[in-house]
Amino acid sequence: MSDLSTLNQQFxxxxxxxxxxxxxxMIVARISNAHAEATIALQGxxxxxFKPKGEADVIWMSPAAKLVVGKSIRGGVPVCWPWFxxxxxESSFPAHGFARTVGWNVVDARPQPGGETQIVFELxxxxxxxxxxxxxxxxxxxxNVGVKLTMDLVTDNTGDTAFPLGEAxxxxxxxxxxxxxxxxxxxxxxxxxxxxxxxxxQQSGDITIPSEVDRVYLDTEATCDIVDNGANRRIRIAKSxxxxxxxxxxxxxxxxxxxxxxxxxxYRTMLCVESANAVENVLTLAAGESHTLTVIYSNEAL
Length: 302
Ligand SMILES: O=P(O)(O)OC[C@H]1O[C@@H](O)[C@H](O)[C@@H](O)[C@@H]1O
What we know:
Layout: H1 4-11, E1 17-23, E2 26-32, E3 36-41, E4 46-52, E5 79-80, E6 105-111, E7 117-122, E8 137-145, E9 149-157, E10 163-165, E11 167-169, E12 172-174, E13 181-184, E14 190-193, E15 199-202, E16 213-217, E17 224-228, E18 233-240, E19 244-249, H2 251-258, E20 270-277, E21 283-285, E22 290-301
Antiparallel strand pairs: 1-2, 2-3, 3-4, 5-11, 6-7, 7-8, 8-9, 9-22, 10-21, 11-20, 12-20, 13-17, 14-15, 14-16, 16-19, 17-18, 18-22, 19-20
The structure holds 6-O-phosphono-beta-D-glucopyranose.
Residues 72, 85, 95-96, 170, 194, 214, 246, 248, 274 line the site of 6-O-phosphono-beta-D-glucopyranose.
């Protein structure tokens, strides 16, 4: 299911949702309702933009992002599934899993009573490489676009054996400058520091970004705020079903190597705060069990 006219016929909603081809082979759902605007690529069910009406963007998309079939998009909300980071034992398997670079199906879309719009994506079983993932399951991403953005990543184990599940909604947020922000909500949490070889450390106070930051905070379901004194706003990240929070800024050298961060200073205008189940918090999903990771993003003036 990826033919544009079929998608528009089956799931388009007058004055709320249409599907367009944003680049060759890249179909994007465009939502605009009384509350907000959003775009979501069918590849990866990758939310690219979200902006409440009359407010600033809540999601960062690199100005140099490439919309190319089979490549992850730099910015937005990549869906990392069914593992986060490197695969536990196979270094040749793709970082952050395979879900973010394959086409998802749209399985439902409907207006909500309060004028919000909901769209549901499903990862087709045919897009799960058997050699990397020999498990029977159903994976859906439910996205609700209102004044707040809500995303539910739902995994059902439809087989008869348990499997490990690592995952993240790897969200890029826009900031005025790394020097102007702090992240509140993780004081006292322990974290794995990827910059220093996965050492276990403890957070004291708010998080600031004076250099490269790549951390997996463990055993926390806390709401986090990105407090941005330069933009006079707070982005609130509420979540459930997620025991890890990843905080990432690549800083100058790593961003330059990636080549899709825009200008030399592109890294200064973004911050990833990812709601995850990673490292020690990887889940085991028993046969017949279902797990939902939910995030709710909103903007508030300071
Ligand atoms: O370039 P990618 O594969 O999208 O990954 C970006 C980053 O994603 C973060 O979640 C990881 O903690 C980083 O280590 C990684 O560099």
